[in-house]
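Anyone up for a design puzzle?
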């Protein structure tokens, strides 16, 4: 492939995954994520050891492990840099949110009637679970959703899985060809039925009631600013941090909860991608932020690691086509302590900070802001298979990977690498036969981030103005 063809393959892969998570099957059925507010970032060398995350403590698993709960919190608490592909920044979400609410100020007075409405609906959606401890220690309080809100979250997750399966299947066909049109029409009814079933379960499980409460919260926020700030301060106060040995964490949990089972997760869906079927968008974020610039030197990455991908060398891919299959799970990150309604509330400022000093609400010019992005989900793939007409040069990289001598990646896929976010020294290692790379186990191949809304809405007196926006990075199409 030429560098331009490599970029096209990467953009197509990016667009397929982005389309899966932002697709809305109709005006009456919403997308999982708002495409205008979502940044998908490809990751590199992020192989996962499922033992590090299994059966974690969560509101829906109060007897789970504190250690694996901490591992999940630590992995998802990192705010990525506003760059073309995923790169950990020094910003930690929990600490930053704590700093924000502890330094937030407002002159607005609370409307008692609106506060009553807010509290009533908030308590409808949230509850505290008490976990017994050995005497004389008091029970541990674990915040989480109420039963109806948990049902809502579970049903929404099942709906997202059904939507992803439908959209990915459709993207696997070239609908400009009559044969593919017929093939798609043969499978579409069954996939559409899965979406309808998931939607009906969601609506019958109290969807309308939960969303009325959510809307009521949204409608009252500008009349109870100080209460929202105080609530945020309480949720991240030192007394609400849990302990895993010497490590402290705030309750953060995944949906689906069994995501660490990979292909065996209830949220896993079939994923396929063929470079011969072009489904790319001219205005795709892959053109600027989707990761193309990170692979300008080629789709092969040799050496380096998840935390040190800049130490890897890049090589171009010689194959003329690529076909990828895997099991894909979209894992939502649930944080009962993070009340993002604050970021949409008017009438407050942050001590010594300018207006929109937390975020300008865009990608451009937001890299140096206090909290430009919030990681809201990640994409896990398991049992990945990559097929192509690999050249001898390509096969030399594959041989290095299958021998386990060095870390090797292809695009966002880890073919051989040490486990990320783990104390284990084991490695994931692929096999190669009949022109196909088979990668066992699990890996995170992308992170889903919400662009933080523009906030704080007011400037603190005397705060310096924000600097001019910086130019966004462009997709590199040549070596």
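Challenge accepted. My sequence:
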């Amino acid at each position: 492939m030429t560098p331009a063809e490599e970029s096209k393959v990467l953009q197509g892969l990016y667009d397929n995954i982005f389309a899966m998570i932002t697709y809305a099957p109709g005006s009456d059925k919403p997308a999982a994520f708002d495409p205008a507010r979502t940044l998908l970032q490809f990751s590199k060398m992020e192989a996962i050891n499922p033992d590090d995350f299994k059966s974690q403590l969560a509101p829906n698993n109060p007897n789970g492990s504190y250690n694996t709960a901490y591992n999940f919190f630590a992995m998802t608490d990192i705010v990525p840099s506003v760059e073309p592909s995923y790169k950990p920044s020094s910003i930690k979400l929990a600490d930053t949110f704590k700093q924000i609410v502890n330094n937030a100020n407002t002159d607005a007075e609370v409307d008692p009637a609106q506060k009553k409405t807010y509290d009533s609906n908030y308590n409808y959606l949230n509850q505290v679970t008490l976990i017994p401890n050995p005497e004389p220690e008091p029970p541990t309080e674990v915040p989480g959703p109420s039963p109806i809100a948990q049902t809502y979250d579970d049903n929404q997750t099942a709906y997202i899985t059904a939507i992803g399966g439908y959209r990915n299947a459709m993207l696997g066909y070239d609908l400009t060809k009559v044969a593919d049109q017929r093939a798609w029409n043969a499978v579409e009814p069954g996939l559409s039925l899965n979406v309808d079933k998931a939607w009906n379960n969601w609506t019958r499980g109290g969807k309308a009631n939960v969303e009325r409460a959510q809307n009521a919260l949204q409608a009252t926020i500008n009349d109870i600013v100080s209460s929202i700030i105080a609530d945020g301060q309480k949720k991240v106060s030192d007394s609400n941090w849990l302990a895993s040995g010497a490590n402290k964490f705030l309750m953060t949990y995944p949906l689906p909860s069994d995501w660490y089972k990979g292909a065996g997760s209830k949220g896993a869906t079939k994923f396929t991608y063929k470079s011969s079927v072009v489904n790319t968008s001219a205005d795709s974020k892959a053109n600027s932020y989707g990761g193309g610039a990170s692979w300008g030197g080629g789709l092969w990455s040799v050496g380096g690691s998840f935390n040190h991908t800049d130490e890897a060398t890049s090589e171009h891919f010689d194959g003329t086509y690529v076909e990828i299959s895997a099991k894909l799970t979209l894992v939502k990150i649930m944080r009962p302590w993070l009340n993002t309604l604050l970021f949409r509330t008017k009438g407050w400022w942050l001590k010594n900070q300018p207006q929109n000093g937390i975020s300008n609400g865009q990608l451009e010019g937001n890299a140096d802001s206090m909290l430009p992005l919030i990681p809201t989900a990640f994409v896990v793939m398991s049992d990945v298979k990559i097929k192509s007409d690999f050249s001898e040069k390509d096969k030399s990289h594959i041989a290095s990977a299958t021998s386990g001598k060095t870390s090797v990646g292809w695009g966002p896929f880890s073919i051989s690498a040490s486990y990320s976010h783990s104390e284990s020294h084991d490695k994931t290692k692929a096999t190669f036969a009949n022109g196909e790379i088979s990668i066992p186990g699990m890996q995170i191949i992308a992170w889903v981030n919400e662009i933080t809304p523009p906030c704080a809405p007011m400037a603190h007196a005397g705060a310096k103005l924000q600097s001019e926006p910086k130019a966004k990075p462009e997709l590199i199409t040549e070596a």
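A detail worth pointing out: Residues 3-451 form one domain.
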